[in-house]
């Protein structure tokens, strides 16, 4: 597995779905030791998702792209492969996708995915928690030498937008799995317009 990248929000807000070489000066923490959630199968998780919450461990990055909305679909490609198609949109440009990224994905075992980054290398994603009709929480880790480092964790939801009570409930799940608001940067999205998905 090659080195992975960590793309910042300032570059394209794709930090939740892209990877590339992890830099020596990035203060990333070890990948959390979390057992994958195995109560649902991956076919139950297919379909449309909206990015609602993202947890970043690196405190050295500047996250300012609050005007960008990310939504996508998890689709089955064949018996062994899936693909994620993510649309990155600016609400000021309704009707036009700022970017569309497609990520080949393979389920290595129940709750653990291997994602091929467009920039090279693999990213490991672990399903922490999921309700097929409501939400999914994924932790993304990349490799630096022999170390597995936590890059980001995302909460995606089936509905566009997330209410305050739902934010608290999902945040509580993150805290239960060891995420600390004092040690992590947490970014949330809401009030994103409804967009047409690109097939």
Automatic annotation (TrEMBL):
Signal peptide from the UniProt entry: 1-19
Keywords of the record? Signal
Highest taxon above the source species: Eukaryota
Q: What is this protein called?
A: Uncharacterized protein LOC112681949
Q: What is the lineage of its organism?
A: Eukaryota, Metazoa, Ecdysozoa, Arthropoda, Hexapoda
Q: Which gene encodes it?
A: LOC112681949
């Amino acid at each position: 597995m090659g080195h992975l990248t960590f793309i910042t929000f300032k570059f394209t807000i794709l930090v939740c779905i892209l990877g590339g070489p992890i830099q020596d000066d990035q203060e990333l923490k070890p990948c959390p030791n979390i057992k994958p959630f195995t109560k649902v199968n991956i076919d139950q998780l297919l379909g449309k998702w909206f990015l609602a919450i993202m947890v970043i461990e690196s405190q050295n990055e500047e996250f300012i792209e609050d005007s960008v909305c990310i939504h996508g679909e998890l689709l089955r490609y064949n018996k062994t492969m899936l693909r994620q198609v993510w649309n990155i949109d600016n609400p000021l440009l309704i009707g036009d996708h700022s970017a569309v990224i497609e990520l080949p994905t393979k389920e290595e075992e129940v709750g653990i995915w291997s994602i091929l980054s467009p920039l090279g290398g693999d990213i490991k994603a672990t399903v922490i928690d999921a309700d097929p009709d409501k939400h999914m929480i994924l932790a993304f880790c990349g490799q630096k030498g022999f170390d597995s480092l936590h890059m980001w964790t995302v909460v995606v939801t089936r509905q566009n937008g997330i209410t305050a009570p739902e934010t608290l409930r999902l945040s509580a799940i993150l805290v239960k799995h060891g995420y600390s608001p004092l040690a992590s940067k947490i970014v949330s999205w809401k009030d994103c317009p409804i967009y047409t998905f690109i097939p």
